[in-house]
Amino acid sequence: MVPIIACSVIALAIVAERFWTLQKKRVIPRHLVAQVWHWHNNKQLDLEHIKQLRGSSPLGRVLASGLDNLGHDREIMKEAIEETGRHVIHELERYLNTLGTIAAITPLLGLLGTVIGMIEVFTRLTSSELGNVNSLAGGISEALITTASGLIVAIPTLMFYRYFRGRIDELVVRMEQEAIKLVEVLHGQREKDSSVESLS
Predict the structure, then answer these.
(1) What pLDDT digit, counting tens, does each position of 18-50 carry?
(2) Of the given ranges (23-32, 95-104, 160-169), which has the lowest mean pLDDT?
C-alpha cells in the first residue's frame, strides 16, 4: 500500500501542476499576435519588446524566435519557429511520462500486494493459525484491498494523462496557426488587415 499511496500523491501533484501550466490563457494569451503586429506596424518591434515577448508565454517564445529572423526570408523564420516549437512542446509535456507510468504500474503494484497477502493467508492456514472459514475470508478480503487501491489510483490517473495529451495537441495546433499567420502577414503573403483582424 505504501508505494500505491506514494504514487497517488505524486499523480495528484502532477495533475494540479499541469492544470495550472496548461491553461489556455497562459500558453496562448489572447491578442498576443495582434500586439506583435501593432509593435511592428508602429516601428516598436525592438530587442526589448522581443525579450518581453519571449518571457510572456510559450507562444511568445515561438513568435520571438521567428522575429529574431525577421530580416531573413519566410522559410528561415519558419525553421526557427519550428525548432523553438519542439522545445516548447517538450516543456508542455513535462511530467506526462511520469503520469502515464503511474497509471500503468499502480494496478500491478496492487496485484503484487494481493498476491503477497494471499501467500501469507495460505501460509498461516497451513500452519493452522487460521482456524475457521471466516478468518480465511477476512484475510483474503484484506489482501484484495491493494488491488482495489491500485485501480482506484490508476483509473483517474490514466484519464488525466489522456486528457492532458489531447489538450497539448490542441494547444500545439493553435500555436502553429498563430505563428504561421504572423509570418505570412509580416512577409506580405496574406491580406494584412483581414489577418490582423482575425488574430484579434
Answers:
(1) 999 999 889 998 888 888 888 878 777 778 888
(2) 23-32
Handedness of CA 74, 79, 84, 89 (dihedral sign): positive
Domain boundaries, the chain: 2-94+165-199, 108-162
Radius of gyration of the chain (CA): 27
pTM score of the predicted model: 0.80
